[in-house]
Amino acid sequence: MSRRDLARLSLAGLVGAAGVGGFAAPARSELRIDITRGRVDPLPVAIADFKGEGVEATRVGRTMTEIISSNLERSGLFKPINPKAFIQSDLDFDTPPRFGDWRQIAAQALVHGRVTIPSPGQYRIEFRLWDVFAEQYMTGTSLTAIEESLRRAAHIVSDMIYKRITGEDGYFDTRFVYIAESGPQNRRKKQLAIMDQDGANHKFLTDGNTLVLTPRFSPTVQEITYLAYYQNRPRVYIFNLDSGQQEVLGDFPGMTFAPRFSPDGNRVIMSLAKDGVTDIHTMDLRTRRVAQLTNTRSIDTSPTYAPDGSQVVFNSDRGGTQQLYTMGADGSNVKRISFGDGRYATPVWSPRGDLVAFTKITGGTFHIGVMRPDGSGERLLSQGFLVEAPSWSPNGRVLVYFKQTPSDRSGRGGTSKLYTIDLTGYNEREVITPLDASDPAWSPLLR
């Protein structure tokens, strides 16, 4: 979807906007999911069809309902109730629902809405969220969208419901960029691809004639950075998602690894290998000046910034085994933070700043885990033959990564798929992709 299309998707009324449709939002709702605790039971929620007059409005209404229901269910925090159980079938958008009917089917929250067509090609979408047991209106809004932005409208409504009930920002209006893979494992074709977080709107960004690796989103603009091989030489590129234009960030001597944006989007941090030594460098995107942050005889790689940009986490074998370290953004004050059995790699600082996700290899098994930035509180969330490359949702509650299964000696067989899991470690879901997939990166919330 182009920026021009996005500009035509407008919000008319925001979360908690008192008086939407004449219903005053309560000062404080009784209904809330506390996601700061460990595992919680999914909240039963009734999501009624968004009603509309005519075939077209009815179609759009059903599509909105399906996308919102799927988003909330995949989060693991909500349990949509089968519509066949609904008692009240005559929901009116302008009057409160019969709460007793919804309590009888154990619904704790009720979502309903309507779709109108103010002019050809434009859809007005309105929704309301109710606390069934407290009999209170919680939030609602209206949006105007064109056909191409209807899925975004459903994701925005899903994010509003998630935030109103959990108290934290949602992550449904986001995208994944990843490496789409095809062919035998020993002759893999690798393409850049992008899609919505639920797998919709899939698009290949490169044709596979050039090997591409490690894509990552800019935190501030519609750009990604990635590594690609040009005439067998690795180069760091910037890809503008609006224009489709690619730009070579620079030719660097030796091998280049894992470029990542700084939180303000003004720098890229990466590893450069030369003469058997790999160190971490940054490039100022405005001046193209390169600065070296580490200077050892070891392999220092996989750097990512803390969300405030003040620190960097990376992995290094400077202590004899591959472990995680932090340092100041200028390369000062290096500290080792991982001390468990095995090797640690691909660290990524949570957008909330409270955790670092990583890959751990121990006993011949790969794991995805998290620990606090000081190295305490290590927890392993997923494991497999090859499980790697975690990337955070923008609210810091969910990770996306890939799992690969073994292939035979000729490179045949085996699969590589994307998965998501929340911090409880109990809600692992496959993300369906057209081809095999690896090295995903989660975008910020779209603007």
Description:
The protein is 11% helix and 43% strand. It is mainly beta. Strands 1, 2, 3, 4, 5, 6 and 7 form a seven-stranded mixed β-sheet that branches. It has a four-stranded antiparallel β-sheet with strand order 10-9-8-31, with no helix packed on it. A hairpin with a 6-residue loop joins strand 23 and strand 24 (356-362). It is globular, with a radius of gyration of 24 Å. 44% of the residues are buried. Residues 1-21 have low confidence and may be disordered.
Main beta-sheet strand count, sense and barrel state: 7 strands, mixed
- Which stretches are low in confidence, meaning pLDDT under 50 for 5 or more residues running? 1-21
Q: How far apart are the first and last residues' alpha carbons, in Å? A: 12 Å
Rg is 24 Å
The percent of residues in helical segments reads 10-25%
Q: What portion of the residues fall into strands of 2 or more residues?
A: 35-45%
Overall number of strands: 31
Number of DSSP helices?
4
Global mean pLDDT: 89
Shape type: globular
**Helix-and-strand structural type:** mainly beta
